[in-house]
Hints:
By secondary structure, this protein is mainly α. 91% of the residues lie in helices and 0% in strands.
Amino acid sequence: MFWSSRRKTNRSNGLYLSMFLEQAMDLLWSSKAEAMLFLMATQQQLDLQTTCKHGSIATKRNNKIFSKN
């Protein structure tokens, strides 16, 4: 049971990553500014997932980003 759900998770993560890379490449070719916004939003989403799983790792990174402004 555990291995079955683990494989599904890995497959969905791989699908998400390939879709992300495809969208990122499309944006890079269309507009660098749009691509940067997309990548920043995606990084924030990944940070939220990391925070939920592992505590405050992402929060520390976000604090560094926002303290520069």
